[in-house]
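Risk register update: the risk that structure generation would not scale has been downgraded. Supporting records follow, first protein first.
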Amino acid sequence: MAAHRGVHQTVGLVPTMGALHQGHLSLVKRSKAYSDITVVSIFVNPAQFNNAADLARYPRTLDEDCALLEAAGVDYVFVPDVKEMYPEPAVLKFDFGTLETTLEGEFRPGHFNGVGIIVSKLFHIIHPSQVYFGQKDLQQVAVIKRLIRDLSFDLEIIVVPTLREEDGLAMSSRNTLLSDEARKLSPIIYRSLSLAKDELLKGVKWFDVKKQIEAAYQAEPRLRLEYFELVQSDTMEIAHALNDYDTYAICAACYIGGIRLIDNLIVA
């Protein structure tokens, strides 16, 4: 990429773990509109999985992915193997503060350390001018922002809104793992987020909103709600009420038929 940067072309990076869908392609579209050169990386990063079974069943569709990216006009696709990215086991440990103790950080210990390591490696290898992430992974976005700021990476992070199915389900590679029954249940996540947002903006106290939502999940034995929280969207700190100065998000993680899905909605 140095040759492109040398002639003042900007390089946009879209980091992915493959199993691409229209949500990924929306990141590609934004990169092609904003950056001169678009690079998509495909790497299922073992360092960010704290569950070996989850890593093993993560969908891998490389041939289909490359065909989609070629049709989308991507300039480069970077598909390293594990030995290339980790010639030796990584021993470095990041400390992202409270980001590692709440929500995804609490329920997936070590996850964000693995994210920080692989994203740092990609930044050093590709030297992007811009990097594109989806809003669905809001806490990951906060981690990457901290990484860029604290390590002085010379690049811009661009966050693209979540793309959804017609019934509201956030597009995710994991959706392909849902059974037909689980897929029919899955819109409850978006519906519950939307209901909670509406209630909050009407002035209902968060404690009462959360209690109502948790009761709805508990009434359906095929669902297991892991968390449903109001947070400050920049810091991901748990909040209990809205004020006029901060931006908030409602974040949820839920197991449906054994498949873990996450989603969020920004609260204006």
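Supporting record for the second protein:
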Amino acid sequence: MADENPLLKIVEVVLAVLLLGAVFFAGRAIYRGLPKSGLAASAVDSAAQFELNIVMRDLAVDGQTQIELYPMEYKALQREFMVNGRPGKNFDEYLAQRLRRLSPVKLQIDRSGRGQARLTAGAWWMRATVAHANGEVMEWRMPLTISQPVHTVELSGENAYERTKKF
């Protein structure tokens, strides 16, 4: 075995280098596919080329308004819950648990009831709440598919998910 073929040794070295390169590039591709963490990274991402406009109609924007956008596909999460759901846990609890792992893009609404965010294309889920001074709280939950350069969502009393009032 002391007299190995030099050509065989060269082939072994070349294959080893190719294997290391393949592992490196596969890891890099997976890392690049992961969602960005942190608000600053997702809000100023250079790939965020799509504009989302939020318009609040027939709502007094006198109270506290909070709008959060999560990069997730809502229908896929529902299917995952149906397959992997835990007994004694409802979908809202499952959703809240999953949302804790994601960094939302937060949107500010001005006095005229308008807000704007730059997002990447794909599936997003929006949760918006308005807490009025009179104790009324309105909430919107909706899946969004961002695929056009400009996308507008109108929030009103008619399309609210939930409306509550504290006495």
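Residues 6-33 form the longest helix (28 residues). On this basis the risk owner (M.S.) recommends closing the item.
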